[in-house]
Amino acid sequence: MRIPGFVLALAALALPFPTLASVGEQAAASQTAENSGIQDIESESVLALKALQLLDQHIHSAGYRLVAANAAYCKENVPNTGLLLHDIQQYGDSAAARFAHGFASDIAVNAVAPGSPAAKAGVRVGDGLIAVDGIAVADVEIDAEKLADEQPEYRRIATISAMLAKAAADGSMTLSIVRGGVEQEIELAPVQTCPSQFQIRVSDDRDASADGKMVSISSTLAEYVMGEEELAAIAAHELAHNLLDHRERLDEQGVNRGFFGQFGKSAGRIKATEIEADRLSVWLMANAGYDPQAAVRFWTRYGKEYDKGIFSASTHYRWKKRVELFEEEIAKMAAMQPVDGKYAPPLLVSLP
Ligand SMILES: [Zn+2]
Questions:
Q1: How close is the Cα of 250 to the center of ligand 1, in Å?
Q2: 33 falls within a domain
Q3: Are residues 220 and 257 in the same domain?
């Protein structure tokens, strides 16, 4: 989860349960001193944090399924544990974060993708991470210069996530975790998957993006989605951009991806990448066991409601065109004989 401004997170996601807070206040008034810490925790904060974690867990699970199921078709594979960590430092209100998420230690498990090596090894959400292959996470040195692009409160988790990836490279790793005050060691056998990570970005904007490595879906768009298959449809489109190196390709062509990219040659080149991402997305979904028709359902519903939004700027096809692209690709798959339940995506197979 990314929180550009914690206040923004709560403003965007504050849930309508004021009554809980007032009940809490009344209860707190009659509490003894030993419970007094709880008075300071806002129910709204806790619920907003839990809602965000739930979205993070869903996007992480869908993302893992997509990168794991399509590994054979990606030109590059990376070791993957299926683990998503978070750092107490990321949260402006650490008392609320501890209350909402547990945090058995300052670095803890935020999500475990179902079916992943971490899930198979028995890692659980809330477990505290103490060490990776015997190296204590408390001792990691943060290279502030190298992580200059990261906000300071995200630098430690970025460093530890990189440490985890490095340890995973040889196909086996030992995590020292703490759960319920008890330390234990867990052996993990990371698997090879397509690259890309997935996150929820807290924002009022209804959008999604891919920067070559990370797929980000705004909290507002994720809240609009109905069910994991629709979330997978959005994630698959953005993952397709990453797997097809679209950002790099557009940069090489000198395409302006900003405001001026909406006009002329830049718009045409961006639109070409959008069409490719739409075409590839349904293959990625089908291989991961998601119904590719979820892409049709989502964009039809979304298009009817928000046809003037960012997704239908001149760089993007309007929704009816996009739905036609999905249907064309679904028909191609239907005419094929899958191998082990999978369809080789033409756009990935033809990559140099
Ligand atoms: Zn796109």
A1: 13
A2: no
A3: yes
